[in-house]
Specification:
By secondary structure, this protein is of the alpha+beta class. The protein is built from nine helices and seven strands. The chain has a five-stranded mixed β-sheet. It has a two-stranded antiparallel sheet with strand order 1-4. Strand 2 and strand 3 form a beta hairpin. The longest helix has 16 residues. The radius of gyration is 20 Å and the shape is elongated. It starts with a helix and ends with a helix.
Length: about 190
């Protein structure tokens, strides 16, 4: 991303919106917006597969591993407004486990792109399935969308829940129920 390419466009938007776009409070806004966009979309600079990288370990463990309540922030690709919430990511190992911090890092890589929640959910699950070759993967995202709160229907207390269930989580009802019970057992 090129900040210098973004700044003049932000300045043009400000001139179109505000008749006093040159006032003191807005003079540095194009630079600040470009910096913010660079930060918000830094996930494009990372390969999600490399996040897992060398953090795979052979382990004889065949029960569910769940990381719950992973905070995330993203930008809706339709309005460039934030959506944010919690991700719950689980897998049942085949022969490999992954360092647990990598689950949160994977969520972060996909969240730091222009997104729709549905795609982000699937991307996280698919990458884990591809890299770990587990018995199953489950991902649930719960998010609040400012495009729903600030514009359009203006529904202040709405949230969106999406899920992606692969392998044993999709084919085995007891596994799916255990995952949902653990996700919902204790919300912080």
């Amino acid at each position: 991303m090129s900040r210098s390419a973004i700044e003049p466009h932000v300045a043009a938007i400000l001139r179109a919106i505000d008749p006093e776009a040159e006032r003191e409070g807005l003079v540095q806004t194009p630079r600040r917006v470009a910096q913010a966009l660079e930060f918000f979309t830094r996930g494009y600079q990372e390969d999600p597969r490399s996040v897992i990288g060398e953090a795979l370990f052979t382990e004889q463990y065949s029960e569910m591993i769940l990381m719950r309540d992973i905070d995330f922030f993203s930008l809706c690709e339709h309005h460039l407004l934030p959506f944010f919430g919690k991700a719950h990511v689980a897998y049942i190992p085949g022969h490999k486990i992954v360092g647990i911090s990598k689950l949160a890092r994977l969520v972060e890589v996909y969240a730091r792109r222009l997104q729709v929640q549905e795609r982000m959910t699937t991307q996280i699950a698919s990458t884990l399935a591809e890299q770990l070759e587990p018995q199953g993967v489950a991902v649930v995202l719960e998010a609040e969308h400012l495009c729903m709160r600030m514009r359009g229907v203006e529904k202040q207390n709405s949230s969106v829940v999406t899920s992606a269930l692969l392998g044993a989580f999709q084919t085995n009802q007891k596994t799916r129920e255990e995952f949902m019970m653990l996700v919902n057992r204790h919300t912080r």
